[in-house]
Design brief:
251 residues
């Protein structure tokens, strides 16, 4: 006898809530990007990831259940069925082997190098030598970018790579979503540029909503959801106009 297959979408509707993982960062005033943080006055979740999750929950007609999970543990939590979707992981080919991504783009991500300000115009070749140590945010796909561009470097995962760089534990950070406020608060640091002043951008990508593979019903709904919200102008307002207003890593 055939067993009827149930989509995660059906589970969400039956449960009455959609579970979304978030690792809260600092408020944008602290220099962190406006991805996922708590309002200091109300304690309520704010930022791109909570807003995207809230829109999905609203259009499903269910409650939003934010589950606090560290970034490196979020993909395992999805496959352990502790959460239902990932709201803003970056699409790249190797990650797409394990996750299915929606068609719609959220924020553009530009991967850059942070260095000490006195090395800001040394260019990318200054990083391609033995003995260089590069910090990346723990669990980030930027580790793959760092290893590909700087194969001779030692890459270090850290929950606070900025502190490592300031303390001399690494020579650079390969990261994304660098805000103007971050550079104001850390004047000892700068984005790496070529000697002619051109900003070094290692790679570009986009954040997207993603789910476990093999669930066409849920994926089709999320693609339809994106098209609807995009047509209202809400995706551009949130992920382009608002998000980009914070960014320092613009050419």
């Amino acid at each position: 006898m055939a067993v009827e297959w149930e989509s995660t979408l059906d589970e969400i509707l039956d449960r009455g809530s959609v579970r979304v993982p978030i690792e809260f960062l600092g408020h944008p005033d602290t220099g962190d990007p406006p991805e996922m943080y708590r309002n200091p006055a109300t304690g309520e979740p704010e930022g791109v990831a909570p807003r995207v999750a809230a829109m999905i929950a609203e259009d499903l007609g269910v409650e939003l259940d934010i589950v606090e999970i560290l970034w490196p543990d979020q993909i395992p939590a999805l496959f352990d069925r502790r959460v239902d979707l990932l709201p803003k992981h970056t699409l790249f080919p190797r990650r797409a082997l394990e996750l299915e991504f929606t068609m719609g783009r959220l924020m553009e991500i530009r991967i850059t190098c942070q260095v000490r300000a006195d090395r800001a115009n040394n260019g990318i070749e200054s990083m391609r030598r033995g003995g260089v140590r590069i910090g990346v945010w723990h669990g980030s796909s930027n580790r793959d970018v760092a290893e590909r561009f700087f194969p001779m470097a030692q890459v270090v995962d850290a929950s606070d790579p900025t502190r490592l760089l300031l303390d001399g534990g690494v020579d650079a950070i390969v990261g994304d979503a660098v805000t103007r406020r971050y550079l104001e608060l850390n004047p000892e640091l700068a984005l790496l540029r070529e000697p002619d002043g051109k900003l070094v951008i290692l790679e570009r990508g986009h954040n997207k909503v993603s789910i476990r593979p093999g669930d066409p019903r849920f994926l089709n709904w999320l693609n339809s959801w994106y098209d609807y919200r995009d047509a209202q102008g809400e995706i551009e307002d949130l992920c382009v106009t608002w998000w980009e207003s914070f960014m320092a890593d613009r050419e």
